[in-house]
Design brief:
single chain; alpha/beta; 7-stranded parallel β-sheet; globular
């Protein structure tokens, strides 16, 4: 058949399938569609005649010949005012009727009423083709419109992969299907809330959908099944990859069930409908498979739903709870007496209430067990007695609630479903003791240090405690988690083909990343050792090797700092944050610092606040941990996270809420907020704690929440092995990758290659950057600056396509090859731009390229890339993908360039006299320190230990002493050496270091000779006096400080 590639044949196939599976379809029916009211009157009247003949008779009697007009006007008015969802579920009140006129009949939970069954069978589902839907553009036609009893419930734009892609269908909606054109009439089928409930963009390989059209700003979500753990759809040997849409989703019973039980209206405070939620494919699939399995197997089963962050777990849990609460078996017996939901999501309770009210118009179905209203046991007992369908409790009340339902199941034969969301809590006493055998040594140590435990562990403890006998037969468990532990898989998993336990349903982290719901946090993961290796030309990070060569000026300051101790790690963190993270999201980006213990958290907070105040940086820091910490070295009294010495800005507020405000930038955490903490502005993380396996995934994933304009995250890890981190992620994300050691010169090579392509000039780069740097710059100015370049490239691609098609038609191989070369070169140019953006984002945290032209291109390419959708050109460039975030250039021209434009290293000349290099000098100082310190201490101490103690710990503490800073600045070295304050500060530093370095500190405190020796070393090769003077001049000179 000719023209098989055309979308007409795609349409034919879909309509043919539907008409053979319970849908109505005639090829010539579309002209009967009423454009002004957006209704298909023949089906509306046929439905009323079949399902409500008495009501139709009364209406005919009241309105006579005017009935069709009165009916359609009344329905259209109701749709526009109350929304399509509400009208389909509740009907329309009309003059002459005692009860609302029903526009549909959905299937009840109990199928005992034959009259309802007849009405359900009478529903008219119809597919219409090429529907002229618009009163503003009479020639516009939608490819398909799906109607229920004459009311449009879905629209479809189809594209054939042979000529276009699903994104062209999306663009058609965004640019050519405006729901409320300026100066025009409201669009009945496309408008919100009275138009179709969902709009599908469909090709043979992909499906996208939205529930609210809003012109170019419309957001379409993927509605794909996934392909081997990734986005998209797997090839279908039986036909099109997207056939599931019309064969399964639009199947008659399935489609009516979705309209009845899945769609949820979201309202604002004034109860105005703002949005409609339509399930994503994995949500529909998981909940339906779960319900089918419960019906087939009966109560008492266990289910593990492994859905990644960004999967919409809150809605999935709400649907699951609602469906299980309403489930009846073949004998019409209710399967569960109540459904118990454990969750720490405040939104879940509200969402459940809202969703169920939307479905049933009944309040009081959901009970919440809280700490506020009296005894939990009394509350729970009352809720169970009242027959509450759904009982929501927090993780704190969960162990008790679980015990109560287990006892009821055992003694009274009651049946319950328990739905466990990922939730976390600190545990003490008996609850903690039960957990000991279920936790790894590290997890147990964390729990002892104020750490938190999750629902999975609590469930496991309860289930291990009970013999797998009668007590659990009446309980059905459903666990929702993004990252199941081995124990959870063991308890809840189903044996797979290899005999190992597997989750019941999976929506992978990889698919969530590829579909754009979360970010890939490994994109800029850097271990400190890798950063050091890159910055120091391949040398391994070695704490005894302290280089201060002028040749290293091109390395970002934080890489040159050596993290001997907390004080120096604080400096690394703060400087990296200010340089790389803070400029993101228009200066609103935040970061988290993960430390190993509560005591360390207290010390970090003290050091961090001291460092920030000493430099007058406008940064706010909070620290979070559970319980109280006794650390006499830091504070005389025990402190908690609410202590004013630690978090003076808290003032009784919740830490999450306080950190969300604009005054706070960094959050220090110890065994808290490493799981279940959602803060979309988090763009940076600093890790100073060993993270094993799943803990690494959960902790680093705090950064993955999406936010408008968020496309970059940074992780700097002081202690973990990148290979181990990657291994942990691969468990949940098969294709996870880490940036490996890279040649820093590649950025120059790519820049030269991109410049040589001749597709842009410096003026165009400058114009875009100017708008980005201008705090008053507008989106309109950015669009005007970037559009001409995108337009030129898209037209060049389109012209080359036309040339190739023309040459192919004429059989001109030479011209066809030339045109193909042009197309390939443009695609390669785009690929090189993407590589440049990725590489610069990673390497610029390590190297100061000292060249604003390099960074300006990064800004320019980052803005240009999303606009270059080759093969999908429009008359106008689609600028909706560019969001102005006001970039700030990192480099301010203060540091000399050491990487030249051609990418070579160039060492600046050494001082005219003397041939020794700076490194040799510095190395000599270190050797001298080691030599001198060796004679001071007794016992088995390595050179490294002694060097760290003197040149790192003691010197680091003395450098923070304000009195010494002032004295060094205003006295000669000899005067400074004789200062009594120096002796006192040295003793204080030795005492401060006692816990970490007991052997050396106790010798130093007990011997005046050792103290004198330490002072001699610090003033000599350790260069304390010189370092204090350098620091003093840096803090007094604002130019140096910037």
């Amino acid at each position: 058949m000719a023209g098989l590639h055309q979308e007409k044949h795609f349409e034919d196939e879909i309509c043919e399938h539907l008409v053979h599976h319970g849908w109505l379809y005639e090829a010539d029916a579309a002209p009967q569609f009423q454009t002004p009211t957006g209704l298909f009157l023949p089906d509306l009247l046929a439905w009323l005649k079949a399902a409500q003949p008495d009501s139709l008779q009364r209406l005919e009697k009241t309105h006579g010949a005017q009935l069709p007009q009165v009916l359609t006007d009344r329905i259209r008015k109701s749709l526009n005012e109350r929304g399509t969802l509400e009208v389909l579920r509740r009907g329309v009140e009309m003059l002459g009727l005692k009860e609302p006129l029903q526009l549909a009949q959905f299937k009840p939970a109990l199928g005992l009423n034959p009259a309802i069954q007849v009405r359900y069978e009478a529903n008219h589902l119809r597919v219409l083709r090429q529907v002229h839907h618009s009163p503003n553009h009479p020639k516009d036609a939608l490819d398909l419109v799906l109607c229920l009893n004459g009311v449009p419930v879905a629209t479809v734009e189809l594209k054939s992969n042979f000529t276009q892609s699903v994104h062209d269908a999306v663009d058609q909606y965004r640019f050519d299907r405006h729901p409320a054109p300026k100066g025009g009439l409201a669009e009945p089928v496309l408008g919100f809330p009275g138009g179709a409930l969902v709009h599908f963009a469909v090709s043979q390989s992909e499906v996208m959908m939205t529930t609210r059209l809003a012109g170019p700003g419309t957001r379409f979500l993927p509605f794909n099944r996934g392909n081997q753990g990734g986005a998209g759809n797997a090839p279908n040997p039986e036909g099109f990859a997207t056939a599931y849409l019309w064969e399964e989703v639009w199947e008659r019973e399935s489609w009516l069930d979705i309209l009845h039980r899945y769609l949820v209206g979201k309202r604002d405070e004034k109860k105005q409908l703002q949005a409609v939620i339509f399930p994503r494919y994995h949500q529909l699939d998981a909940t339906r498979k779960l319900v089918a399995d419960v019906l087939a197997q009966g109560p008492g089963q266990r289910y593990l739903i492994q859905h990644s962050a960004g999967s919409g777990k809150t809605n999935s849990i709400a649907w699951t709870a609602h469906f299980l609460a309403d489930l009846h078996d073949a004998q019409h017996k209710k399967l569960f007496d109540s459904v118990l939901v454990v969750s720490d999501r405040n939104v879940l309770d509200a969402q459940l209430q809202e969703a169920i009210f939307d479905f049933e118009r009944t309040t009081g179905v959901v009970a919440t067990i809280t700490n506020e209203s009296g005894s939990k046991s009394a509350q729970l007992g009352q809720a169970l007695k009242d027959g509450k369908k759904i009982i929501v409790c927090t993780i704190q009340t969960f162990p008790f609630a679980l015990q109560a339902v287990q006892e009821l199941a055992a003694t009274e034969g009651k049946r319950f479903a328990v739905i466990a969301d990922e939730a976390h809590s600190s545990q003490t006493g008996e609850a903690a003791a039960k957990l000991k055998q279920l936790l790894s040594a590290e997890e147990w140590a964390d729990l002892q240090d104020g750490g938190e435990v999750d629902t999975e562990a609590l469930l496991a403890a309860q289930m291990e405690a009970k013999a797998a006998g009668g007590a659990t037969k009446g309980l059905t468990y459903v666990a929702f988690t993004a990252t199941p532990k081995a124990k959870t898989l063991e308890l809840f998993g189903r044996p797979g083909p290899d005999g190992l336990p597997q989750p019941f349903h999976v929506y992978s982290m990889r698919q969530a990343i590829e579909e754009g719901f979360i970010l890939d946090v490994l994109q800029n993961y850097t271990s400190y050792k890798l950063a050091f290796k890159l910055a120091h030309d391949g040398q391994q990070y070695d704490e005894t090797q302290v280089e201060r060569s002028a040749a290293m000026k091109g390395i970002m300051q934080w890489v040159r700092l050596h993290p001997y101790n907390i004080a120096q790690k604080v400096q690394v963190v703060v400087e990296h944050y200010r340089e790389n993270v803070q400029p993101l999201l228009n200066g609103k980006a935040k970061a988290m610092v993960v430390v190993a213990s509560r005591k360390e958290a207290v010390r970090w907070q003290k050091a961090m606040r001291s460092y920030i105040q000493g430099r007058n940086y406008p940064l706010g820091v909070l620290v979070a941990f559970s319980g109280e910490v006794n650390d006499a070295e830091s504070f005389p009294e025990a402190v908690t996270e609410t202590s004013p010495q630690l978090n003076p800005g808290l003032k009784g507020r919740d830490i999450r809420e306080t950190f969300a405000g604009p005054d706070y930038h960094l959050l220090l955490v110890a065994n808290k907020f490493q799981t279940g903490f959602d803060q979309p502005l988090l763009c940076g993380m600093y890790v100073d704690k060993m993270l094993g396996g799943i803990q690494a995934v959960q902790t680093l994933s705090r950064l993955n929440r999406a936010h408008p304009g968020k496309d970059t995250t940074y992780i700097l890890d002081f202690v973990n092995d990148p290979a181990e981190v990657l291994k942990a992620f691969k468990t949940y994300y098969e294709t996870a990758e880490l940036e490996s050691a890279t040649d820093p010169h590649l950025v120059y090579d790519l820049r030269a290659k991109l410049d040589a392509a001749g597709h842009f000039d410096d003026f165009e780069v400058e114009r875009v950057v100017q708008v980005e740097l201008d705090p008053k710059g507008t989106q309109k100015e950015l669009d005007a600056a970037i559009a001409p370049v995108a337009d030129r490239l898209l037209k060049r691609y389109k012209a080359a396509q036309a040339e190739k098609a023309n040459a192919d038609a004429l059989g001109d191989d030479k011209a066809a090859k030339a045109a193909k070369d042009t197309l390939d070169a443009l695609v390669l140019f785009k690929g090189d731009m993407a590589a440049y953006v990725r590489l610069y984002a990673f390497l610029s945290q390590i190297f100061d390229y000292g060249n604003t032209a390099i960074e300006k291109r990064f800004v320019f390419f980052k803005r240009l890339l999303p606009l270059l959708e080759f093969g999908r050109e429009r008359d106008q460039v689609d600028l909706s993908k560019v969001v102005l975030t006001h970039h700030t250039l990192k480099n301010r021209g203060q540091q000399p360039m050491t990487l030249n434009a051609d990418g070579s290293y160039k060492l600046p000349p050494i001082d005219a006299v003397g041939s020794g290099t700076v490194q040799e000098k510095q190395q000599a100082y270190l050797n001298e320190i080691i030599e001198k310190v060796n004679g001071l201490f007794e016992g088995e101490l390595t050179d490294d230990d002694q060097l760290v103690y003197v040149n790192g710990v003691l010197k680091g503490k003395l450098l923070e002493n304000e009195t010494l800073l002032q004295q060094a600045a205003s006295n000669s070295k000899e005067q400074f050496a004789n200062s009594p304050d120096l002796n006192k500060a040295l003793v204080d530093a030795i005492i401060d270091a006692f816990e970490a370095h007991q052997a050396m500190s106790s010798q130093a405190l007990g011997s005046a000779k050792v103290q004198a020796g330490l002072k001699d070393i610090l003033l000599g090769p350790a260069q304390l006096y010189e370092a204090l003077r350098a620091r003093s001049s840096a803090s007094s000179d604002p130019a140096k400080r910037a």
